[in-house]
Specification:
The structure holds 2 protein chains of 2 kinds. Chain A is mostly helical. Chain A has one domain. Chain A has 21 helices and 2 strands. Chain A has a two-stranded antiparallel ribbon with strand order 1-2. In chain A, a hairpin with a 7-residue loop joins strand 1 and strand 2. In chain A, helix 4 packs parallel to helix 14 and helix 12 packs parallel to helix 18. The two termini of chain A are 40 Å apart. Chain B has 21 helices and 2 strands. Chain B has one domain. The model of chain B has no long low-confidence stretch (mean pLDDT 88). Chain B is 73% helix and 3% strand. Chain B has a two-stranded antiparallel sheet. By secondary structure, chain B is mainly alpha-helical. The chains are: A mainly alpha, B mainly alpha. Chains A and B meet through helix 17 and helix 18 of A and helix 5, helix 6 and helix 7 of B.
Chain lengths: 519, 529
């Protein structure tokens, strides 16, 4: 090779840092492997697929370890200003850990649902892993094209997951609703991205940020419209208020583990994209999106809590519905620090505010997955999953009831859920620091409102069981057969409970992100 | 006593109940099974609270009484560096009496519950909740970090909620909801105030913030933060017009719950005012003091009038509710004392805090015992046409009730007297810059309130303790009234410490004032340590 040719090669051919991209790649490859293996495995060996998926996710999470020593970037531009499409910085790693861990716990929850609902195993695991791969790609992507692709890779399998219950009307309706509203949001976002590209001539977040400081005045409106439209797509994913109507029906129609997955990983995707776009690409428009996100946060938490309050406990699926609305409210709390970042004086402050969101999200992921895990456990014996079905859970399954009580108190932010309390404190302090006193007050009121329904549910757990509920023989026959196979589900509850208790003892484990700069 | 031992004792006082609470949920180890799981777990409760009381007394004994203004037995460990939250424990003359009072009342409650098991679901949960409650209250008096104070403040709510909700009487669910929603709303608002103080002041450490004496906070910040904190604490205290959760909660709560609610939980509110608002936001305290005092006085008058109305014949007044309203009045004196911003007034407030804990604790015990015996706390049902004649039917119980009532109305020589008198003394000569005529008016109203208190307490004594002899004249047979058992041995054990301390504090107030006075002087002048 001549020297000339080799220099050409270095300018055109990128050297890919495979280690940096390993986490999403491993998840995607594991998904493909599971799909292929599904073709060759006999029916009675299908459960091996699940363990394969779990191994793939665990491997992907382990692949984060070598990246801890420092920021790595790859897929960089070889000419002109330095800009990369993929960066594995602390923020990306933390969110990837959250996403992969969340997917892993979802996988543990799914074993029993797969059996109970007769879901097709191969497809399920493939879809879960591909969605997880997309979700893991998103926090590391640093250009709009990659962001959109990652978002779609995360979402498309999710539609199919929601609709996987064949022949179930609710399930297909939920999938359709989810699909249509999501596609609309994506279309709007793509329009926004194209506007931004037209105005700035770049797709890389860092270069957009530079270009937006001196946009051609004639293109200014275009750029602003593009920024707003881009945010809409991510607001949809976080289920922020005007875009939240799909949540309850989708959660109810989907199998419980999928609802858990959407409530944690789906949200993580949404808010990490929102953070990347706002803080990295549009910092010069902070005076526009800061107040907008603040209002969005206030509306989201208020609407979510108001709807959660109005759930009637005897209605079927009221437990999942309540969790769905509570997750909308929690999304509001997650947005508060992002809004605070819009009011920050420096990049340093903005990054610290973002840290509060990340810390809160980690707490929320553990606790919410735990709550869904217990809901999945209860759903096995009472498929209607009404709040009234939780009455006397303490008498029947003391450990599960104590765990659920703990998770709910964490979500509410009351001791003994210390971690929930302090995660809320970091969010409050981000708001107070940024001078968003009104938002802090709105959030305080919302926290109290939310306490009402979380506590009510907690109380129900410890009530004496309904005396009339003794026509046991029929339901007793069902769980008696399936109970031994709930081991992964029990493991998921135990894992989340242990994590929640450990975090309550040492909140620094997640709260340290709130005091460090991530991006 | 050496410093490390003191540190360990204080840490043990906070942590032991927590561990005990977890242990109560586990099956008893062999050798401690007792006569059955229920008895074993109740005994566990008595043992743990007893050990905690012993530790608290040892702590008090080792306390350097020559320097009560100094924070002693301090432990300061980093916990959450991200939020700058430290596990900072310590006691001084202000918190020590409250710590001992809490440990004592919880122990007596556990003892009482051991012999007189509350009716409701499993005793296991009861003991676990009781210990959790104790841990939370002790922690809130012992911690010196704003966020930890908030944590402890909140920690109390869940156990109290379940105690009322599961072991309470009629209307318990509504009362429990009301209790928790009111206090939660208050405490979330308080959290915002505490955050503001901590973020603007640069630290959450209560000692450091008290030493700064509000120097790092602008006047506006102080006003906003203090308002939020005062509202939160006032719900707990409770201050009129935020008191309306209290009568319901007291009426519905089981005996032990009422005792702890009145004796200990209410003190957390006033303690917070003295420990946080006075030293950390002195300017704002100065601004709000006259309003606080006005609300306090309204509370005194309102509480007494409500009690008078309940004590009337035919009003269907509930004795527990009456004592709850009397608490509103008594806490009004405490708030008035604090609002004078003078050492005299604040000392009086702290003294009245302790006295109220002892006396009202005793009264709730007595009323609970009366309810167990006669099945009702309705004054009209109890008294019938002429009076319940407790003197004749159960002389010792009647005597104790009369003793509690006269102690509560502030008879000189008993504990209730000094706190109220000092609070009014403070109002006679309030701190510089506060309007003297306004405070003189407050003092006059407060004095009128003591008269009203005396009136309803004496009415209660007349209707419950006096009355016709139960033997119907001429026939020599018992009247239709069932016989009342007099005070049992275990009840004597649970009550006599309260009686003795009430007399002691009444006759020798210097023992308590000597502890609080230097610490109060320092807090008001801006703590220097």
């Amino acid at each position: 090779m001549t020297p000339n040719a080799s220099s050409l090669a270095t300018s055109l051919v990128q050297s890919v840092d495979w280690l940096a991209v390993a986490p999403p790649t491993i998840a995607a490859l594991a998904g493909l492997a599971v799909l292929v293996a599904d073709l060759f495995l006999p029916e009675r060996r299908k459960h091996l697929l699940g363990w394969g998926a779990i191994a793939g996710l665990a491997l992907a999470a382990l692949a984060l370890l070598p990246l801890l020593d420092g920021d790595r970037s790859t897929f960089c531009l070889t000419s002109g200003a330095h800009a990369c499409s993929y960066t594995a910085d602390t923020f990306a790693l933390v969110i990837q850990f959250l996403v992969l861990g969340g997917a892993l716990l979802t996988a543990l929850l799914s074993f029993s649902s797969l059996d109970d609902l007769k879901l097709p195993a191969g497809e399920f695991w493939f879809l879960l892993l591909s969605s997880a791969a997309g979700a893991a790609l998103l926090p590391a992507s640093r250009d709009l094209a990659t962001l959109v692709i990652a978002l779609e890779v995360a979402s498309l399998p999710a539609f199919a997951l929601v609709g996987l219950r064949r022949g179930d009307r609710l399930s297909s309706e939920a999938a359709l609703k989810f699909f249509l509203s999501s596609v609309t949001a994506t279309a709007v976002m793509l329009l926004g991205v194209s506007f931004v590209y037209a105005a700035t001539g770049s797709l890389h977040l860092s270069r957009i940020a530079d270009a937006l400081t001196h946009v051609d005045p004639r293109l200014d409106t275009l750029a602003q419209a593009g920024a707003v439209l881009t945010l809409v797509g991510f607001a949809f994913k976080t289920a922020a208020v005007p875009f939240h109507f799909w949540v309850p029906d989708t959660y109810v129609g989907a199998p419980v583990p999928v609802a858990a997955y959407l409530s944690v990983v789906g949200k993580a995707v949404g808010f990490s994209g929102l953070i990347l776009v706002t803080v990295l690409a549009f910092p010069s428009y902070a005076d526009v999106w800061g107040p907008a996100v603040a209002v969005l946060a206030a509306l989201t938490m208020t609407a979510g809590n108001a709807a959660a309050l109005r759930q009637r406990p005897e209605r079927s699926f009221s437990a999942v519905r309540l969790l769905a609305w509570s997750s909308v409210a929690q999304a509001g709390y997650l947005l508060v620090p992002i809004a605070a970042a819009g009011y920050a004086d420096s990049g340093q402050d903005a990054s610290r505010a973002i840290g509060s969101t990340v810390a809160y999200a980690l707490m929320y992921a553990v606790v919410n997955l735990g709550a869904f895990a217990v809901a999945a456990l209860v759903a096995r014996t009472s498929p209607a999953n009404r709040l009234t079905d939780y009455r006397g859970l303490y008498a029947a399954r003391p450990a599960a009831a104590l765990a659920l009580g703990f998770f709910l108190l964490c979500l509410a932010g009351l001791p003994p859920g210390v971690i929930g309390l302090f995660a809320k404190v970091t969010v409050f302090s981000a708001a107070v620091d940024a001078g968003l006193g009104w938002l802090a007050v709105v959030m305080a009121l919302n926290v109290v409102v939310a306490l009402y329904y979380y506590l009510q549910w907690t109380t129900v757990l410890f009530r004496a069981p309904e005396p009339a509920a003794e026509p046991e023989p029929v339901p007793a026959a069902g769980p008696a057969i399936t109970r031994p196979r709930a081991v992964p589900l029990t493991a998921a509850i135990a894992l989340t409970a242990a994590a929640g208790i450990a975090l309550s003892g040492a909140p620094q484990l997640v709260l340290r992100f709130a005091s460090s700069t991530l991006l | 006593m050496n410093h490390t031992v003191q540190q360990l004792l204080l840490a043990a006082v906070v942590v032991l109940p927590l561990l005990g609470s977890v242990a109560a949920l586990l099956p008893a180890p062999p050798g401690l099974r007792g006569r059955g799981p229920d008895q074993a777990v109740m005994r566990h409760g008595v043992t743990v609270t007893g050990v905690v009381l012993a530790a608290a007394i040892a702590l008090a004994a080792g306390f350097d009484h020559d320097h009560p203004a100094r924070m002693q037995a301090q432990t300061d460990i980093g916990w959450i560096p991200a939020l700058d939250i430290r596990i900072h424990l310590g006691v001084d003359g202000v918190s020590l009496p409250l710590l001992v009072l809490t440990a004592l009342l919880t122990f007596l409650s556990a003892l009482y519950a051991y012999f007189n098991r509350p009716s409701g679901p499993s005793p296991k949960a009861f003991v676990a909740l009781l210990l959790l409650l104790e841990s939370g209250t002790l922690a809130s008096f012992a911690v010196l970090d704003l966020m930890l104070f908030f944590l402890a403040f909140e920690m109390v709510l869940i156990p109290m909620y379940f105690l009322i909700n599961r072991w309470g009487g009629a209307e318990r669910e509504r009362a429990a909801w009301r209790f928790i929603l009111y206090t939660l709303l208050g405490s979330v608002v308080m959290l915002l105030g505490l955050l503001l103080v901590g973020l603007k002041g640069g630290t959450f450490d209560m000692v450091a913030l008290a030493t700064d004496n509000g120097a790092k906070l602008s006047h506006t910040t102080q006003l906003i933060a203090a308002l939020a904190i005062i509202v939160g604490l006032a719900v707990k205290a409770p201050m009129w017009p935020l008191h309306s959760w209290l009568p319901d909660a007291h009426t519905a709560a089981p005996t032990v719950g009422s005792v702890l609610l009145a004796g200990v939980l209410l003190k957390m509110g006033t303690y917070g005012l003295v420990r946080i608002v006075l030293p950390m936001t002195p300017d704002a305290a100065h601004t709000y003091a006259p309003y606080l005092a006005a609300f306090a006085v309204v509370g005194i008058i309102y509480g007494s009038l409500a009690c008078l109305a309940l004590a009337r014949t035919g009003a269907k007044g509930d004795l527990k509710r009456l004592i709850a309203y009397s608490s509103v009045g008594h806490m009004g004196f405490v708030l008035l004392g604090i609002a004078t911003l003078t050492p005299t007034g604040v000392n009086g407030a702290l003294f009245a805090n302790i006295a109220h804990g002892l006396i009202t604790g005793l009264l709730f015990f007595l009323v609970g015992a009366l309810k167990d015996r006669s099945g009702t706390t309705d004054l009209d049902q109890l008294a019938g046409t002429s009076g319940a004649a407790l003197y004749g039917r159960a002389p010792r119980l009647g005597g104790l009730l009369a003793f509690g009532a006269v102690a509560s109305l502030g008879l000189p020589g008993l504990a209730g007297f000094w706190g109220e008198m000092l609070a009014m003394f403070g109002a006679f000569d309030p701190a510089d810059g506060l309007s003297r005529p306004a405070y003189l008016t407050y003092m006059a109203f407060a004095a009128f309130g003591t008269l009203l208190t005396a009136a309803y307490m004496l009415i209660v004594v007349r209707r419950v303790c006096m009355g016709d002899h139960p033997i119907e004249p001429g026939t020599g047979t018992e009247a239709q009234r069932p016989a009342l058992a007099d005070v049992h041995g275990h009840e004597f054990a649970a009550w006599s410490p309260l009686v003795a301390l009430t007399v002691l504090a009444g006759l020798w107030p210097a023992a308590l004032l000597g502890l609080t006075d230097p610490a109060v002087q320092q807090l008001l002048a801006g703590g220097t340590r």
